[in-house]
Design goal:
With about 400 residues, this protein is α/β, with parallel strands linked by helices.
């Protein structure tokens, strides 16, 4: 056959870096600080809620396409409790197979061939693939390091909008940089979206993982944005059950209906019993979320300080559970080469940030580490990394 088997829209996407680095960790016996999954399960009462649902026969057969009513109501209540956002559980909430499916369904539903999609670079790798599958053109706006953090250039964002721009794909708290966009920055994004009549898809899966008193502001809560914003949430990061793959969107009835039209031909339904468990998880008291933040903040500080002692320049994150580092103080400037040799040199696996960029040169000297691991694992990783100093 002369024609390539893989759809040309996906030709640039091979095996994800996460699969490569996780396989490298397993092969070398290294500590895996690459892929962002916890090494402990979430609350025992939520795991037991899933067991109870299985035994009671709830969700073992096809659940409703939009999601079980209990979870949709819990999502709506969560948005009201934390952000004062009112959503109708029947018409404005849609349950998905994790945030990744929510992203795919939203872009497949809302983007047509030739539409431009602005995304903040560096970005989660599925963003680029989903824009490509929808036939859109991705337009990166680069977050750049400045005074120990990554910042959004609002002038660059405004300049990126053209007559072909359909939507802005926003991620805050931001993976991989750990940036949390401020209310002022989000207000500027909202004003731009209204002025240019743009839709916005916001990936807010790290909404509860913010540190040092940082405020997470949902874009949909700002004036004029509720009816043009698709907000994506997920249980995996908040409750440490990443394998359950329970996510959701909240949006206006019209946007929710559009996304559901695409989603129904992806998985249709998933995670039946787990949906009931996550409905209970979303109703955990505020003390759970406070303890989660405190635990992760302590782990952030442990790993950040250890990386600095090992010779990295460290960008201490305001949110998520990733730390971005600059490897140039260690005499390196190629993140791919650095990460592929790091297991042999230090017995630790990380991710090169360049995979999250269209402008690969902008991300070349940066490497991401995950700190959603046991304290003793992070302590051992820090000890190993100090060999680099």
């Amino acid at each position: 056959m002369t024609r390539p088997l893989l759809n040309r829209r996906l030709a640039e996407f091979g095996t994800t870096i996460f699969a490569e680095m996780s396989a490298l960790a397993a092969r070398t016996g290294s500590i895996n600080l690459g892929q962002g999954f916890p090494d402990t399960d979430g609350p025992e009462e939520i795991r037991e809620a899933a067991v109870r649902a299985l035994r009671d026969g709830r969700g073992n057969q096809y659940p409703p396409g939009p999601g079980v009513p209990e979870l949709r109501q819990a999502v709506a209540d969560h948005q009201r409790q934390w952000y004062g956002l009112e959503y109708d559980a029947d018409t404005e909430v849609l349950v998905t197979a994790g945030a990744t499916e929510a992203i795919a369904a939203a872009l497949l539903a809302l983007v047509e061939p030739g539409d431009e999609v602005i995304a903040l670079e560096p970005y989660y790798d599925s963003y680029a693939a989903c824009v490509a599958m929808a036939g859109g053109t991705r337009v990166p706006v680069t977050l750049r390091p400045h005074e120990g953090a990554y910042v959004l250039d609002l002038d660059e964002l405004r300049a990126a909008v053209t007559d072909r721009t359909r939507l802005i794909l926003l991620n805050t708290p931001h993976n991989p940089t750990g940036t949390v966009l401020t209310r002022a920055e989000l207000t500027a994004v909202a004003e731009l979206a209204i002025e240019r009549d743009l839709l916005v898809v916001t990936d807010e899966v790290y909404e509860h993982l913010v540190f040092d008193g940082t405020e997470h502001v949902p874009l949909a809560s700002l004036p004029g944005m509720r009816d043009r914003t698709v907000t994506i949430g997920s249980s995996g990061k908040t409750f440490s059950f990443t394998g359950w793959k329970v996510g959701w969107i909240t949006a206006s009835p019209e946007l929710t209906s559009a996304v559901r039209s695409a989603k129904q031909f992806l998985t249709y339904v998933s995670s039946g019993p787990f949906q009931y468990a996550i409905a209970e998880a979303l109703r955990l008291p505020a003390t759970y979320f406070d303890a989660l933040r405190a635990d992760l903040q302590a782990k952030r500080d442990l790993l950040s300080e250890g990386l600095a002692q090992a010779g990295f320049a460290v960008y201490r994150p305001a949110g998520t559970y990733f730390v971005t580092t600059d490897i140039r103080p260690l005499g390196a400037d190629d993140g791919f080469a650095f990460c592929r040799t790091l297991p042999e040199r230090a017995g630790v696996v990380a991710i090169p940030n360049a995979v999250f960029y269209d402008h690969r040169e902008a991300g070349a000297p940066f490497v991401r580490f995950a700190f959603c691991k046991k304290t003793e694992v992070l302590e051992e990783a820090v000890s190993r990394l100090k060999r680099l100093a």
